[in-house]
Design brief:
mainly alpha; 7 helices; 70% helix
Length: 174
């Protein structure tokens, strides 16, 4: 039942990314709703659902929009890596700091990958414009939407889990 809920939430985020988000741009930027959904899933459910929801969300958004699903997958993959790095960081970070750090880093990586992908696809190679017109407003909007979603979840009593990845061992037994 929980998997069906996550599936519906990611599908709703992908549909809203294509239909609703472009209607409310802030400084020309719209939030990456699928990325924010995956980050919130990581914050409150751990790395397992994120490893499933990341490719699922990338494919859903790619199919609903004109974006390449493979490029979206590469753009969204840093969520897992950043979540694990911030969990194992030597600094004692609280749940909110880890969630915002994971979302900020993943949003920066995602928007950079998508911007460079657009430049490779024929858009003018203007890295200054990428930073000032895409990255900064986009990250601001992402943090604003994350706050609108994260704070009520924490006030409602939802406790965040850790983002520990189970470490596997290499077994070479012949």
């Amino acid at each position: 039942m929980r998997a069906a809920g996550w599936f519906a939430l990611v599908f709703g985020a992908a549909a809203a990314q294509v239909t609703v988000a472009p209607l409310f741009p802030v400084a020309g930027a719209v939030p990456e709703l699928v990325l924010l959904t995956v980050c919130l899933a990581g914050a409150f459910s751990g790395p397992g659902p994120v490893m499933v929801l990341t490719p699922l969300g990338a494919v859903m958004l790619g199919m609903l929009s004109d974006r390449d699903p493979g490029l979206l997958l590469v753009a969204y993959l840093p969520v897992v890596v950043l979540g694990a790095l911030l969990e194992d960081a030597p600094l004692p970070l609280g749940h909110a700091a880890r969630t915002y750090g994971m979302t900020l880093g993943a949003g920066l990586a995602a928007r950079t990958v998508l911007g460079v992908g657009a430049m490779v696809g024929g858009a003018p190679a203007a890295f200054g414009t990428l930073a000032t017109a895409v990255l900064l407003p986009g990250l601001f909007v992402d943090m604003l939407v994350l706050t609108v979603c994260y704070v009520p979840l924490r006030l409602a009593g939802l406790e965040g889990g850790g983002f520990r990845l189970r470490r596997g061992r290499y077994v070479a037994g012949l």
